[in-house]
Amino acid sequence: MLTVEDTVNAMLGPFNVEIRFSKQAVEDLIGYKKEQQETVLALILARAKNCLLIKPNGIGEPLHGELHGFTKIKPKHLGLRVIYRPRQETKIIMKIIAIGPRDHDKVYAIAAKRLKVFRREMSERNQTGNTHKNI
Fold first, then answer.
1. What are the backbone dihedrals phi and psi of residue 90, each rounded to the nearest 5 degrees, phi first?
2. CA-CA distances (angstroms) from residue 107 to 6, 28, 115, 128, 132?
3. Mean of the per-residue pLDDT values for the chain?
4. pTM of the full predicted structure?
5. Sequence-ordered list of residues with C-beta below 8 angstroms from that of 77, at least 6 positions apart, any chain
6. Mean pLDDT in residue range 104-120
7. What's the domain count of the chain?
8. Do 22 and 96 form a contact (C-beta atoms < 8 A)?
9. Distance from chain centroid for Cα 129
10. Which residue range forms the structural domain that includes residue 67?
11. What one-character-per-residue DSSP string does 5-47 give?
């Protein structure tokens, strides 16, 4: 059975971009209604196809403090944020750490709390290539 990553990455083949969701970001996504999930995934795909790097090399606004090196997708009409770290490797890797509410910067606090686990998980995935369950 294909995972959400497999499905999204199959669409991104021609763009030389790969998306990786942390386990917690997958859980965040699952927490939304099916229609919202589809909208969030469409926004992620659109960003991935449209230069997802941080300025000046891309369109992402850099985050600061503990989340230095991360950026966000902020669809105001949904009232949420997608926090990710872009990495230029042989292809561009979009590593998503959190999907959460825009309310009073809550998603930034959630992402900051997840940093240690996120770094370990992404490092392990670089070594093993494992993906997550389907949504």
1. -65, -30
2. 25, 10, 13, 28, 21
3. 89
4. 0.90
5. none
6. 93
7. 1
8. yes
9. 17
10. 17-127
11. HHHHHHHHGGGTEEEEE-HHHHHHHHTS-HHHHHHHHHHHHHH
Both tokens of 57, joined, read 């090399």
Tell me which residue has tokens 């403090």. Answer: 65
pLDDT in tens, 65-108: 999 999 999 987 888 999 999 998 889 999 999 999 888 789 99
- Structural domain contains residue 5: no
Omega prior to 75 cis, within 30 of 0: no
Which amino acid is it at 80?
L
**Residue 3 located in a structural domain:** no
DSSP string for 65-96: GGGTT-EEE--GGGTEEEEEEEEESSSEEEEE
Name the β-bridge partners of 88: 92
